Amino acid sequence: MFSRKTKNTIDSLIGISTTINGDLRFKGGLRIDGHIKGNVIGEAGEPSMLVISEHAKIEGEVRVAHLVVNGEVVGAVYSTELLELQPKARIIGDVHYKTLEMHGGALVSGKLAHDQAADLVLKLAASST
C-alpha cells in the first residue's frame, strides 16, 4: 500500500578540523564539515546521503543519491535522486540532478543538467507494452 523509503540518517562525520587528501567512498549517510581534496562517491546501487555543511569544502567530483549542500564544491556534482542547495551553497562545476531544490542565495557556476535517463527508460518501457 505505502512504499517504504530508506531513512536518511548520518552514519559518519568528517569534522571541521579534518582534511582528507584522496578519494572517499561511502555507504549510508555522511556529513562533511572539513576539507576533502579528492572525489566523494556514494556506493553505486546503494542508498546514500551526503551533507556538505557550510564549513565544508570539497575539491573534486561528488557522486551520490541524495545530496544536501550548504558549503563549497569545486568540481562536477552528480545526484541520482535529490539535490538540495541550501542558502550558503557554492558549486563551481557542472551539476547533474534528477530532482532539484534550490534556496535563495545558493550559487552554481556551471551548467545545470536534468538527468532524463530515468524518465526516458520509463517512457520506452511504457511504449513497448
Keywords:
single chain, 129 residues, globular, disordered N terminus, six-stranded parallel sheet, 50% strand, mainly beta
Task: Please provide a brief summary of the model.
It comes from Undibacterium arcticum. With 129 residues, this protein is mostly beta strands.
Can you walk me through this structure?
The protein has about 130 residues and is mainly beta. It has one domain (about 10-125). The chain has one helix and 15 strands; from the N terminus they run E-E-E-E-E-E-E-E-E-E-E-E-E-E-E-H. The strands form two sheets. Strands 1, 3, 4, 6, 7, 9, 11, 13 and 15 form a nine-stranded parallel β-sheet that branches. The chain has a six-stranded parallel β-sheet with strand order 2-5-8-10-12-14, with no helix packed on it. The longest helix is centred in the last third of the chain and has 11 residues, at about 115-125. The two termini are about 25 Å apart. Mean pLDDT is about 90; it is low at about 1-5 and about 120-129. It holds the Pfam family Bactofilin. This is Polymer-forming cytoskeletal protein. It comes from Undibacterium arcticum.
Secondary structure elements and their pairing?
Elements: E1 12-14, E2 19-21, E3 24-26, E4 28-32, E5 35-37, E6 40-42, E7 48-52, E8 57-59, E9 62-69, E10 72-74, E11 77-85, E12 90-92, E13 95-102, E14 107-109, E15 112-114, H1 117-127
Parallel strand pairs: 1-4, 2-5, 3-6, 4-7, 5-8, 6-9, 7-9, 8-10, 9-11, 10-12, 11-13, 12-14, 13-15
